[in-house]
Fold these 2 entries.
Entry 1:
Amino acid sequence: MTASSYSFAATICSLATRSRSPRQSSPPPNLRLTLRPAGQSPILRSIRPIASPSGNKHTHKIKAAAAEMATEKGKGNVQVYDTEEDLSVSLAKYTAELSEKYAKERGAFTVVLSGGSLIKSLRKLVEPPYIGSVEWSKWHVFWVDERVVPKDHPDSNYLLAYEGLLSKVPVLPGNVYAINDALSAEAAADDYETCVKHLVKNKIIDQSEANGFPKFDLMLLGMGPDGHVASLFPGHPHLEENKQWITYVKDSPKPPPERITFTFPVINSSANIALVVAGSGKAHPVHVALGDGQSPDLLPVQMVSPEGELTWFLDKQAASKL
Ligand SMILES: O=C(O)[C@H](O)[C@@H](O)[C@H](O)[C@H](O)COP(=O)(O)O
């Protein structure tokens, strides 16, 4: 592949040098689950509360093709699909509905992508009816994390999204905010944060009234087999970052090592988060996050607790231990 194959011109935010404040720690929010009445959708049926301390293990089994549960706060739900194909159909509908809502309400829809298998799970968006019905010109596209590599590098999350989604829909190139890949990881994180600050100031990105962090309309998160989300890995000090909006990693356990990533305060200020998880390799962290599975350390995915709505999109294999 050559760089000339990529005609899609993303906006690259300009470098701004500024000092970074020292890290401070804060206790992670816990995701605790209780039962909510069954969903209205015909494909959804209720299951018993998976977090019940006295519950019989057999009652925790998912008995339907799809199930819905809710957090204690009544925000967020867990949807389990028979197949990843079913999951992708539902994910496209969910994303298109949020796009319509925010395009109408705010005149813009701010969407944050992950890398990994998420992009493949968004494939139905580039098919009818969504390819024609979504107001793509209202989309503003960001990355929750990016590998610090050139945009035409096979490891680039930008390239992955470009090939799987952005090159197939009429999103405005000026509304796609890629990292500046000419910079070091630290400078690219600074630069991307400056870009996001500018867009908050211009009201393209909403802002949390509670804490002033950017409030993206939709954050689409994948999860690794170790329970990481974005480039926030188990046991890493950046899990406790509570000042910076965007930070950097030079020692990612998942290659490539150099990345930038949104921090938890930004992730958790989102209006909507979709956690999209498929495959049996993810069953253990799903069990820890949503059921009674054990982990010696708090998993990053357990720290996902948005100001708005959290929706889990699981396939049966990922939910097999619940
Ligand atoms: O750049 C990255 O590595 C991703 O953004 C990362 O956070 C991803 O979402 C998870 O690792 C899940 O990836 P998979 O879905 O491919 O397992």
Entry 2:
Amino acid sequence: MTQAKPSGKNSFRGADMERPLIAVTMGDPSGVGPEIIVQALADPELNRLCRPLVLGDRGALERALAITKLPLTLETVQETGPLRREPGVVYLRELTRLASEEMTFGSPSAAGGDAAYRYICEAAQLCLSGAAKAMATAPINKEALNRAGHHFPGHTELLAQLTGTDQVVMMLAGERLRVTLVTIHEALAQVPALVTRERVLETIRITDRALARYFCPAPRLAVLALNPHCGEGGLFGDEERTVIAPAIAAARAEGIDAVGPLSADTLFHFAVSGGYDAVVCMYHDQGLIPLKLLHFDDGVNVTLGLPIIRTSVDHGTAYDLAGTGKASAQSMKAALVMAAQMAAMGAAPARG
Ligand SMILES: NC(=O)c1ccc[n+]([C@@H]2O[C@H](COP(=O)([O-])OP(=O)(O)OC[C@H]3O[C@@H](n4cnc5c(N)ncnc54)[C@H](O)[C@@H]3O)[C@@H](O)[C@H]2O)c1
Ligand SMILES: N[C@H](C(=O)O)[C@H](O)COP(=O)(O)O
């Protein structure tokens, strides 16, 4: 057992470093998923932290190994029990056998979308059954997913359904900044109606609980405004006064250290200077633009509020790079490390 050192925003409290089994979903076969997975799994340090089991397609992974020229072999396994861990071996649960025309680089296909969907469903089942302690996901293409008839905007919403969870929260995290989102994959025009007092309050609660459990004992949360200059006294909108401030007051009455509403244009400067442990943002790009500006290379997407642990890369399928071997595997590696560390803390009692 080792204690993780508290350094930066991706550090952990009291992580028990036993090696948990992590289900790694291969993502869209036409994107960079297979190649960043094999690159990440080539790192021996990662295999000291966890036992990764890839859920995917042998042909796609063999192609990724050929492209990256990594000295790894693939071993197909059925069991999830105590896997032998030979150095240089990638363990695979083979869920699909895609034809090459179903995984053309850079081209979304219904077969690829359906395959990606199956990997996610299987990983969620492994986590729900306790066979895997966490899942880490490579990127999917939402167009391909929907072409296959799976009408979800992303993993987050699919996992909420698969696990029977009412409200989940998307968090993206790097060493310098964490953001969580009140609304996720929504058209901007729909956002004001979706920013309700209940949704803001529940996002604050889920953020606070998850941070306290996994990342820092007493989270300090900044809650953003929706409108410029916090609505400028109602001149530019009044959601701050009617919705966000009452939600913050209710959270504070529950003992949560949340402050706001704060103007989004200046707040991130203070958040990265160490003033807050997470920033609760009202919509996707409000939070993800600053996060990816700082942490595109090594950011991790974590779904909070699920009964299972799920982390992910912070980028998409990068069709323009797929098959070149040039995509960075840093975010995939960071997602696996975070999944392993969270899994090692899985038994820690949640606060509140
Ligand atoms: N976790 C996920 O599954 C996830 C996350 C984000 C986007 N997506 C999906 O991916 C698809 C493509 O989305 P997009 O084009 O908006 O974003 P993208 O992240 O795929 O690409 C944006 C830019 O970043 C570059 N890039 C992405 N990953 C990189 C890496 N590992 N190394 C170096 N450069 C990298 C790409 O080459 C491109 O120039 C969409 O269907 C989107 O919904 C999935
Ligand atoms: N909003 C995420 C991002 O931009 O990184 C991304 O679309 C992933 O979403 P899911 O984890 O729900 O697939």
